[in-house]
Specification:
single chain; 84 residues; alpha+beta; Alpha-Beta Plaits; 3 helices; 5 strands; 30% strand; globular
Length: 84
């Protein structure tokens, strides 16, 4: 299964993003950013299903929550930028 990681600048922003996703029924996990993504200065990430990525992105934009980056984790473990 493909996973999407939305990187966020702080724990507070990540908590707000998680709450928005949960409120609209998007299941996600807040976690420290994987090491490969933390090099961009993003300390926290939301991990969610590929099928929920676009809706999550739209909801976070609507709520004014800044997302630093969106990455897809391939089965090989590699992270690549995600484009809808």
């Amino acid at each position: 299964m493909y996973e999407i990681y939305l990187t966020l600048r702080s724990v507070t922003v990540a908590q707000r993003a998680r709450d928005v996703c949960n409120r609209v029924g998007i299941r996600c996990v807040m976690q420290r950013s994987p090491r490969a993504l933390a090099t961009n200065g993003c300390a926290y990430a939301l991990r969610l299903r590929l099928a929920d990525a676009r809706q999550a992105q739209m909801m976070l934009e609507r709520e004014g929550i800044p997302v630093k980056g969106i990455y897809q984790k391939k089965p090989s473990g590699e992270f690549v930028p995600w484009a809808p």
